[in-house]
Amino acid sequence: MKIEFGKSQIYLECENESLLLSEHLDGDHIFPAYAADKAAFIYWVNYGVGQTRIVAYNLERRAYQYVNLSGFSFVSSLYLCPLMEEESLRAFIFLGTKNKQDDIYLFNFADSSLSNLTRSEASESNIVFHQTEQKIIIEFETKNNLLELTLDKKTFQPGEIKKRLKAEVMISVVQKNIQDDIPQAVTFANSLTAFGDSITAGKMRMNDLIGEMHPELAYPEVVKEKLILVNYGTMTVYNRGVGGDSTLDGKNRIAGDLVNYPAYFFAVMLGTNDTYLNQFSLQNSKENMEFIINRILQAGSYPLLMTIPPRNDFYGTLDYVKKNIADFNNALKEIAQAKEIVLLDVHKAFVDYNPPNGWKTLLEDIGGNHPSPEGHQVIADLIAPALIAAPPIAPAGIKIVRIAGNAYQISWSKNYEYDFSHYEFEYGWNSADLKFKQRVSNNLHTIYVLPFTRFYFRLCAVDQQGNKSSYSSTFSTKSN
C-alpha cells in the first residue's frame, strides 16, 4: 500500500487499484497519516470553504468518519493524535485555533462532544503524546513553561495541568557588558546579525550557479557591499541563517545568538517554514516572533522585522498556503506596530517588482521558494537604507562627578557608530523647561553651576543624517 500526497488530494494506491480518497470533499487535503490497531485508518485535515474538518478513512470497512470543526481556523496535523481501541476509532486529540487562540482539544466519537483541555492564556507548542494502559499523558510548552496533562484512558476525564519545569531563558544585556571593551564596542555598534532560515543562509538553486549554497550572494553580504558604496563604513555581518528553521527554532536559539553574535542591528526573517507545514498555527508563530523581538530589544539591539516573500513552487499554488503567508505577514505588521519597530515589507517589494509576473524572476529557477540573486538585491535595497535611517545608540551609563567648587564633570558611554556626528545636550534650571541646547562632540562634558541652584540636563546622540536617538532620563545636580 502506498499513500501519496499530490495536488492537495489524498490518493491510496494498492496492488490492483488506485483510490482518490478525497474526491468527494472540496478544499485542500493535507498531510495524511496512518494508524492501526486491529483496524487501520488513514486520517488527514481538510480545509474546505468555510469548513475545517478531520477526516478518517477505515481501510477495512472503506468507511469515513468526520470531525466537523465549525469556527476553527487551524488544525495541526503534526499534533493530531488518534485514540483507538481494537477496531474502533474512539477520539482525536489535536491542537486547534478557535477565536484566535491555540488550545489542545479532544473530540469524542461516542457522544460527538468537543472538549477544550487546556484553555491557557498563551498558545501551546512542542506537544508530545504518551499512552499507558490507563492514562494518556500530554506534554506541552506554553510561555516557556513545560506542562503536563493526564487523561483517564477510559473516560477521557482530564486531571490538573501540572508544571514540569520552568524553561525561562535568561539572556545577558550584551550592550552593557561590551561598553568597557572599546574594540568590542566598535564592532557591536557597526554590526548586523541576519537571523533567519535558508533564505538568509543563501540557498538558491539557479541554472547558472554551481551548487545550492551561495552566502556570498545573499542579502547579508549584499547589504555590506551597498553600505560601502555609500561610504557608510564596513559593517561586520553575521549570517545566522539556518536551513529549515521555523519561528519555533528561532525562538529556541535567539538567546544564544544574541550572546555569541552581538550586534546592534538584528534583521529577522522567519516564517517560510511555518506557513506551508502541517504544524502551522498563526497564533503560535506570532507568539514565537514576539518572543524573538522582545529578546532582541532586551539585549539593547535594534530589530528590523521582515515579511516573508511569496513562493513560486507547488505549495505556492495552494490557497491555504497563500492565506497562511498573508495572515502571517499581517501578524508581523501588527507586531511591528505594537513594538514600534521597523518593518521591511519584502513580500510587497517582490509583488510590486515589474508586475504582474516580475516577482517570479526574484525567486530561484529550481524549486521556487528561495530568492534568486536578484531577489536578494531587492531585500538588501530595503535593509541598507533602513540601517542608515536608524537612530543612533542612545547615551547610557551617565555619571556626575563634582571636580572642584561648582564644577561638575558629566560622562557617559561613547558612541562608536560609523555615522555618528555629535551629542545634543539640553539643560536648564527647571526640569520641565530645558530651554538651552549645546552641541557636544565627545562623551565627557564639564558644567559650572551657579551657587544655590539646581541644574537639570538630558542628552541624546545625533548621526550624520540628523537622526536622533531617544533622550536619556533627566538628571540634576545642586551647587552648595
Task: Report on the architecture of this protein.
The protein has 10 helices and 27 strands. By secondary structure, the protein is α+β, with helices and mostly antiparallel strands. The protein has 3 domains: 2-166, 6 Propeller (Neuraminidase); 174-389, Rossmann fold, CATH 3.40.50; 399-478, Immunoglobulins (Immunoglobulin-like). The chain has a 5-stranded parallel sheet, with helices on both faces. The chain has a 4-stranded antiparallel sheet with strand order 4-5-6-7, with no helix packed on it. It has a 4-stranded antiparallel sheet with strand order 8-9-10-11. A hairpin with a 2-residue loop joins strand 21 and strand 22 (407-411). The radius of gyration is 28 Å and the shape is elongated. The model is unreliable at 1-6 and 166-176 (pLDDT under 50).
In a nutshell, what does this entry contain?
This protein is of the alpha+beta class.
Topology:
Layout: E1 2-6, E2 9-13, E3 18-20, E4 28-36, E5 40-48, E6 51-58, E7 63-68, E8 72-85, E9 88-98, E10 101-108, E11 113-116, E12 125-131, E13 135-142, E14 145-152, E15 162-166, H1 174-178, H2 182-189, E16 191-196, H3 198-201, H4 219-229, E17 236-241, H5 247-260, E18 265-269, H6 272-275, H7 282-298, E19 302-306, H8 319-339, E20 342-344, H9 346-351, H10 373-389, E21 399-404, E22 407-411, E23 420-428, E24 436-440, E25 444-448, E26 454-463, E27 475-478
Helix pairs in contact: 4-10, 5-7, 7-8
